[in-house]
């Protein structure tokens, strides 16, 4: 069977590897001149690291092991702690925070020779009826026929638009200003994520290895903003306030959580990029005919959920196992979608629930919750419930390879 995949992100590359291993003829199209191996930090939960192992990716040196998430108030006092080491032990797979680029490089190295085609911008597709193939069009005039088309082309997916019309993800009113900075010292060599919060916003700090720290500040956002808002109460135009780092220092410079002052001093404007928080409308199915979606093309959510990469790998795993089975291709594709939609709905609900539009919780209540509620068990359940892989949850027609 000929499978055409649009988009060489994590999900697209993983699908190309697994489907090629299953014996399909696979073509992976990417509009850029090279696969993007830049970017900031990524969280790999046990389903993510487990799936990378299934792909043959060596985890050695991929990132820093994370043993806990420490929820801190802006003065550094502890509100709650999630023991990631217990979650990792439960699933026999580590929790890592690493650089996006390093993960991408290792997936590129696993792609079969001749599968990847660069500088090919998809412009649309025409569904075939009955036994007729799908026809995929590209900007250079090329047309490619396929038995199955997979849209792995991100939140602005051309494949999604071709299938369902204009259906853009919507802004949620927040954004993450983030980057990776050299910050040698105790925190950068440790194994704890610090999630710091206060009235001014949220800051998350992750060691990623080699003396580097991935950091993210979550703040209000309006479409078109190019700088984070500065000090609270400052009503000047964003574009008049100076640099991104200047604004972040003005807003968070009085916070005393461990490592934060050193981070603010070390940050450079060239480290900073912005990721607006967006979410897709939930679809009852992700495709039509033998065409479907994976990754952000199907279910983009804000980075606060910390599951984007792992969920793209989940999509690719379920779809590749399902297409390795026998039977009607369209039924297989719909089976994949329903198996994944059941799991993704919980992630999307969590993304909406965690939105900063909700009423902020007073510190005394948050501290009490952290002491009384089993937050580690709650997070373990969230990871497991969002994962087909950890539950070996595959459609009936899929090839069941795991015990």
Give the key terms.
403 residues; alpha/beta; FAD/NAD(P)-binding domain; D-Amino Acid Oxidase, Chain A, domain 2; 2 domains; seven-stranded mixed beta sheet; five-stranded parallel beta sheet; 12 helices; globular
If you had to describe this structure to a student in words, what would you say it looks like?
The chain is globular. It has two domains: 2-169 and 280-385, FAD/NAD(P)-binding domain; 170-277, D-Amino Acid Oxidase, Chain A, domain 2 (2-Layer Sandwich). Helix 1 runs parallel beside helix 9 (308-323). It is built from twelve helices and 18 strands. The chain has a seven-stranded mixed sheet with strand order 6-5-14-15-16-13-17. The protein has a five-stranded parallel sheet with strand order 8-2-1-12-18, sandwiched between helices. The chain has a three-stranded antiparallel sheet with strand order 3-7-4. The protein is of the alpha/beta class and 403 residues long.
Name given to the CATH homologous superfamily of the largest domain: FAD/NAD(P)-binding domain
Number of domains: 2
Largest sheet, order of strands side by side? Answer: 6-5-14-15-16-13-17
Shape: globular
- Element order, helices and strands? EHEEHEEEHEHEEEEEHEEEEHHEEHHHHH
Determine the fraction of residues in helical runs and give it as a percent range. 25-40%
Oligomer: single chain
Distance between the termini: 27 Å
Number of helices: 12
Number of strands: 18
Radius of gyration: 21 Å
Largest sheet: 7 strands, mixed
Give the second-level CATH assignment, the architecture of the largest domain.
3-Layer(bba) Sandwich
Q: Mean of the pLDDT scores?
A: 87
Strand content: 25-35%
**Based on helices, strands and strand pairing, what is the structural class?**
alpha/beta
What is the CATH topology classification name of the largest domain? FAD/NAD(P)-binding domain
Q: Which parts are unreliable, with pLDDT below 50 for 5 consecutive residues or more?
A: 233-240
CATH class of the largest domain: Alpha Beta
């Amino acid at each position: 069977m000929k499978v055409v995949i649009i988009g060489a992100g994590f999900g697209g590359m993983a699908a190309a590897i697994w489907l090629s291993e299953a014996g399909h003829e696979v073509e992976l199209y990417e509009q850029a001149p090279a696969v993007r191996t830049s970017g900031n930090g990524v969280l790999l939960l046990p389903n993510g690291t487990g799936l990378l192992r299934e792909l043959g990716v060596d985890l050695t040196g991929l990132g820093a092991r994370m043993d806990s998430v420490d929820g801190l108030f802006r003065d550094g006092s502890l509100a709650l702690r999630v023991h990631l080491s217990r979650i990792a032990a439960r699933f026999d797979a580590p929790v890592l925070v690493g650089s996006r680029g390093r993960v991408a490089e290792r997936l590129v190295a696993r792609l079969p020779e001749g599968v990847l085609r660069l500088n090919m911008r998809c412009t649309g597709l025409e569904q075939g009826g009955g036994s007729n193939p799908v026809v995929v069009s590209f900007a250079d005039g090329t047309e490619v026929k396929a038995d199955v088309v997979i849209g792995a082309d991100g939140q602005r997916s051309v494949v999604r638009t071709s299938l369902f019309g204009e259906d853009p993800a919507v802004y949620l009113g927040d954004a993450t200003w983030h980057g990776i900075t050299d910050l040698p010292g105790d925190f950068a060599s440790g194994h704890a994520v610090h999630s710091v919060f206060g009235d001014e916003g949220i800051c998350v700090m992750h060691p990623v290895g080699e003396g580097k720290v991935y950091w993210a500040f979550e703040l209000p956002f309006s479409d078109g903003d190019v700088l984070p808002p500065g000090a609270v109460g400052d009503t000047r135009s964003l574009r008049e306030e100076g640099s991104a780092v200047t604004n972040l220092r003005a807003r968070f410079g009085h916070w005393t959580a461990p490592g934060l002052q050193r981070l603010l001093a070390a940050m450079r404007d060239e480290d900073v990029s912005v990721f607006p928080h967006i979410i897709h409308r939930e679809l009852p199915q992700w495709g039509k005919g033998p065409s479907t979606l994976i990754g952000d093309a199907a279910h983009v959510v804000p980075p606060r959920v910390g599951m984007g990469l792992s969920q793209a790998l989940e999509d690719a795993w379920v779809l590749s196992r399902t297409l390795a089975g026998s039977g009607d291709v369209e039924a297989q594709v719909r089976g994949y979608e329903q198996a994944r939609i059941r799991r993704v709905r919980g992630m999307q609900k969590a993304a909406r629930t965690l939105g900063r539009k909700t009423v902020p919780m007073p510190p005394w209540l948050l501290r009490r919750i952290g002491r009384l509620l089993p937050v580690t068990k709650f997070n373990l359940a969230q990871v497991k419930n969002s994962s087909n892989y950890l539950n070996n949850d595959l459609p009936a027609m899929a090839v069941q390879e795991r015990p």
